[in-house]
Specification:
heterodimer, A: 296 residues, 78% helix, B: D-Maltodextrin-Binding Protein, domain 2, 5-stranded mixed β-sheet, 45% helix, globular
Chain lengths: 296, 336
């Protein structure tokens, strides 16, 4: 048995340097730049429509008028936006946890999968807007109906994506762990769980995009006091179209912010999607890294 | 024989053809001579308050007035005024508070007639529950989150001697299940919707308390009105008088024949989701609201608008107090 010759250390180091250069140095900054570019383009299209079609301000306000009204009403908007953000996060966390646990249970227990799959699909066929008032009736006027609505929306893509990931794991790899005598726990922790991180984050990102919608539906069904949705309804009732647009944009920003957070977590937990090599601080082989930097 | 019959048939067809052509052209001429108007309701689906417009349409009052009126329903309760300003509708039913807000926001709309003449908005408790206004402190009050409730509630708080912060105002999409289930202590609504709603939901039971008018300190002013846009006023002004004239006739008929009016509604909207009992009860409660002390329909006054705008300004629903003349006109009112 002969071992293949090791490449020279300088070659390894150069490859690692090139791989690092392949990934952006400031991934979050780059992502933020794309967000800014996208928003700017939207604003340009919006303003262009006003220049071309000249709609009345109570039909379509200008971006500037919308910005101004949000700034002038900010003292009222931000506590409500914070409330919506809080509902979004709580519901999202519950939905993500529930979705993941359900996927694991469905993967591990075949009977449970067969029984629960139709129910999980059916759960999404129920119009959430019809479910929310029933929750209020049962639970009452507090934050929980809203959290349940967000959870209801978020868990589904997480469960379906993660379960697909589990069911499409490399069978050879699983067989290898069995041959090597790995326990079920170790197999789950070192092979199955890392194998579903990518589809898990796909589900989490879909859920992040929809979570704020759930929070707003929850606020529509049950507001025990002022809420961002009720503030928007009041503005609409009063024909304050600029404020309606402004609040809609604030809602969108909440969704974008949360999506950005989840995308950031995705980059941290699935670095292989964005880099050819692990980051220096993440590399396990510290001694080799040290040798790469000292021996050359 | 066959030949003779064929010839007779041909002659018959030739003789009758001009008659068909004449009758067809006169029918299409009468259809085209009607002026088309679109009416936008204030609610996403039909309910008993649409009865006057429906009667005018179904009993041919609009057609006799030279109008072909179609009815549209808005996607939500805040859209009727936008439908008027974008040309999706020519006349609409709106709340007077929404109209004031719209004018305050420089939206070119105006009220052309009152629908109701008095304020039947109030507080309701579940059947069997007696709560007075003095017990409002610390209680949960349901609101639809609408402009009218936002304007009226401060009057209620003032009359009860409580601050807004000492009462929990909650918002949802339907009040009656929450009231009956005890999730709220008081619901806010109008008598013509709340009482039939509770009757229908709770085996004919009446609300425990119906607190309205001076008892809760709210001004006695109209809640709903017919509105139009400034552009329709300038382009189709003369048809607005015809519209109100037909509507007045229909309203009077529906007020005198509530059972027939409710049945007409059921036939026109069999899938409305409302029972005949609800529609009849609701319409009977609506009828007394339609006329003023002099028995007049539609007539608007400076006083009603001044009282409303003062109230809305006081609770900061509007930034400035518009003059009554910028809000309404009586010039399209039909002759007495």
């Amino acid at each position: 048995m002969t071992s293949s010759p090791q490449p020279p250390v300088s070659v390894v180091r150069e490859n690692a340097r090139r791989a690092d250069a392949f990934a952006p140095a400031w991934p979050f900054a780059k992502l933020a730049l794309w967000y800014v570019a996208s928003v700017s383009l939207t604003l340009l299209v919006w303003q262009s429509c006003i220049w071309i079609f000249h709609p009345a301000p109570y039909i379509v306000p200008t971006p500037r008028a919308t910005y101004d009204v949000v700034v002038s009403q900010w003292s009222q908007i931000w506590p409500l936006a914070l409330g919506t953000f809080r509902e979004t996060i709580y519901g999202y966390a519950a939905g993500a946890a529930l979705g993941f646990l359900l996927a694991v249970a469905m993967y591990k227990i075949r009977v449970f999968r067969s029984l629960s799959y139709p129910l999980i699909i059916g759960s999404q066929a129920i119009p959430i807007i019809a479910l929310a008032p029933i929750l209020v009736l049962v639970i009452g006027f507090n934050i929980y109906p809203t959290i349940i609505v967000v959870t209801w929306i978020v868990f589904f893509p997480v469960t379906i994506n993660t379960l697909d990931g589990f069911l499409n794991l490399d069978p050879d790899l699983l067989n290898l762990t069995r041959v090597l005598g790995a326990t079920r726990g170790r197999r789950f922790w070192f092979v199955e769980l890392p194998g579903v991180v990518t589809p898990l984050f796909s589900g989490l990102k879909i859920g992040a995009a929809y979570a704020v919608t759930g929070a707003i539906i929850g606020e529509q069904a049950a507001s025990s006091g002022p809420s961002l949705y009720q503030f928007q309804v009041a503005a609409n009732n009063q024909s304050r179209t600029d404020l309606v647009y402004g609040i809609t944009i604030v809602m969108m920003i909440i969704g974008l912010l949360w999506f950005a957070v989840v995308t950031g977590l995705d980059r941290i937990f699935t670095p292989w999607k964005y880099r050819a090599t692990a980051r220096r601080w993440f590399r396990r082989d510290k001694t080799r890294n040290a040798s790469l930097t000292t021996n050359d | 024989m066959k030949y003779r019959l064929g010839s007779l048939a041909l002659v018959g067809v030739l003789l009758l053809a001009p008659l068909f052509v004449a009758s067809y052209s006169s029918a299409s001429a009468s259809a085209t001579s009607l002026h088309s108007l679109t009416f936008a309701y204030d609610w996403p689906g039909p309910d008993m308050e649409i009865i006057p417009v429906l009667v005018a349409k179904e009993k041919g009052y609009f057609a006799k007035a030279g109008l072909n009126v179609s009815i549209k329903f808005p996607p939500n309760t805040s859209t009727t005024i936008k439908m008027l300003t974008t040309g999706s509708a020519d006349v609409g039913l709106v709340t007077t508070a929404d109209l004031v807000s719209a004018v305050d926001a420089s939206v070119p709309v105006t009220s052309i007639a009152n629908y109701s003449m008095s304020n039947n908005w109030g507080l309701f408790t579940k059947p069997g529950t007696k709560l007075s206004l003095s017990q409002l402190k610390g209680k949960t009050v349901f609101s639809f989150g609408d402009n009218w409730t936002a304007t009226m509630l401060p009057f209620v708080f003032k009359k009860a001697g409580v601050s807004a912060s000492s009462v929990k105002v909650v918002t949802s999409t339907n009040d009656i299940p929450l009231l009956l289930n005890g999730r709220v202590n008081f619901s806010t609504n109008t008598t013509n919707y709340e009482i039939p709603g509770i009757e229908g939901a709770d085996k004919g039971q009446q609300p425990g308390e119906v607190l309205t008018g001076a008892a809760i300190g709210v001004p006695n002013i109209p809640i709903w009105d017919y509105a139009t846009s400034k552009s329709v006023e300038s382009s189709s002004g003369k048809y607005l008088t015809a519209f109100l004239s037909a509507l007045k006739q229909a309203t009077a008929w529906a007020a005198a024949n509530p059972d027939a009016a409710a049945t007409l509604f059921d036939k026109a909207y069999p899938s409305s989701g409302y029972t005949n009992a609800y529609n009849l009860s609701g319409w009977k409660l609506t009828v007394p609201l339609l006329t003023n002390a002099k028995g007049q329909y539609f007539v608007e006054t400076d006083a009603q608008w001044t009282e409303l705008t003062s109230a809305m300004k006081a609770v900061k629903e509007i930034t400035s107090q518009p003059s009554p003349s910028s809000l309404y006109t009586n010039k399209y009112q039909p002759a007495a």
